[in-house]
Amino acid sequence: MPPTHPLNQEVSLSVIKTACSNCNLRELCLPLGLSLEELERLDDLVSTRRRIKRGDHLYRAGEGFDSIYAIRSGFFKTDVLLEDGRDQVTGFQMAGELLGLDGISTEHHTCNAIALEDSEVCAIPFSRLEVLSREIHTLQHHFHKVMSREIVRDHGVMMLLGTMRAEERLAAFLLNLSQRFTSRGFSHAEFYLRMTREEIGSYLGLKLETVSRAFSKFQEEGHIAVQQKHIRILNVSGLKALMNHQR
Amino acid sequence: MPPTHPLNQEVSLSVIKTACSNCNLRELCLPLGLSLEELERLDDLVSTRRRIKRGDHLYRAGEGFDSIYAIRSGFFKTDVLLEDGRDQVTGFQMAGELLGLDGISTEHHTCNAIALEDSEVCAIPFSRLEVLSREIHTLQHHFHKVMSREIVRDHGVMMLLGTMRAEERLAAFLLNLSQRFTSRGFSHAEFYLRMTREEIGSYLGLKLETVSRAFSKFQEEGHIAVQQKHIRILNVSGLKALMNHQR
DNA sequence: GCGTTGGCTTGATCCATGTCAACCACAGAA
DNA sequence: TTCTGTGGTTGACATGGATCAAGCCAACGC
């Protein structure tokens, strides 16, 4: 690298930090097995970053859609509102995951995306992603896989909501979180929940009291240790076994 | 058209009948606003048809994935099986809709697709669809919209399973079916259900007895007339009103 | 320190839906 | 025609989770 003026160097560093090619989430997010030249073109596409404060919306249902978002850091929930005021959390998203795929279909977002902690996302203009994915085949295929994975995930949630009882649902939820934290290099056994009991309940189709009781029961039975939002998983196979207590 | 030998003519007719360009479902399915030349290329892609008998599988969970399927005629359900034997119907699909999108993610199907009546589908080899959609932009965009629509639809089902009570679920289900029949040119008010009460229940997260009771209640209240699988909707707004009876 | 607030826990009670069981209706086979 | 099987309906009863209500805990501002 040629010597640079200190200020220039700082600017160039910050640019590097923003780039996909240098992002430690690149395996979870869009790019995968690209050539250097292709990575550069991707960096160019994903150049806009946005910071979202805890509690703020990344987008709202009804707003026009033009970008999908890759979460660089932080934690989000998405929820859908019915006219009568009822709402349901449709998912929790963490670093390395994508947000906004629902907006492609109508060109309007169909749910709200809300940060559960201070977060940072990369905006990916969708029409430009389509252009680029025509040229980079692996990008195209990877994107199709990501969309398909979302459909499969939703089927899993439908299964959970349609056939599982309260404790099974919570066990499945905890195991899923644990697995996702693990694949991001965090502890699989110890983590902080970013969402309230009410949000968990909404996601699982339960009332917050039921969620709370299930947490207490799991603790009594020695499967987990709960202290507010701090969770330690003591017995993974115990939790897995719980998932077969069908009615 | 040049004069042909009778046998040739018959062959040529059957080819025409198979083609996308001549399929009366073309607005619902993949192609949309394509040039003649583009339509021909699509016809070439979607050349394999398969007949599936009532009760037979189009594909099974775990099988390798290589094609998605456009339903040309008939009616399907998809379901997911848990190891412990529980299963859940994840959707009902009718003519003009696509099947198999879940398989893209892992290159294996993740659910079973079963014909609820004698049906006919067009197989669309996925890798060739990807090639063609790189070249035909409207095809690419339409396909992305279709996948996204599937995600939005699943969110709707999650909402239904997570926040609605039994009668609301069934009302939503009937209204959805009615709307889909309508958009295919069938009566919005009168149709035959292709699935059993048990399958409806599985889809809605209810037991078949609950579904049956809800049908009876709707009939008592004059919203519908039920005779086995034959349904007449007498009062659409009544059903819609039912959907706001939250707890 | 103290009070306030939001989130969490726990208990008592209720009710929607599941469960179990009997019976009915239609379709297809004999 | 009767027989048989599958799917549908209906009733009586059981129960998981919702609801209502009280109190607890930790964080934060004063």
How many domain units of chain A? 2
CATH superfamily of the largest domain in chain A: Jelly Rolls
Q: What is the count of helical runs of chain A?
A: 8
Q: Which architecture of the largest domain in chain A does the CATH hierarchy give at level 2?
A: Sandwich
Strand content of chain A: 15-25%
Oligomerization: homodimer
Order of helices and strands of chain A: HHEEEEEEHHHEHHEEH
Cα distance, first to last residue of chain A?
66 Å
Low-confidence stretches of chain A: 1-16
How does the overall form of chain A come out from the CA principal axes? globular
The total count of strands of chain A amounts to 9
Radius of gyration of CA atoms of chain A, rounded to a whole number:
20 Å
**Helical content band of chain A:** 40-55%
CATH fold-level assignment of the largest domain in chain A: Jelly Rolls
Structural class of chain A: alpha+beta
Q: Provide the residue-averaged pLDDT of chain A.
A: 89
Of all protein chain pairs, which has the greatest interface, and how many residues does each chain bring to it?
Answer: A-B, 47 and 47 residues
CATH class of the largest domain in chain A: Mainly Beta
- Major pleated sheet of chain A: 6 strands, antiparallel
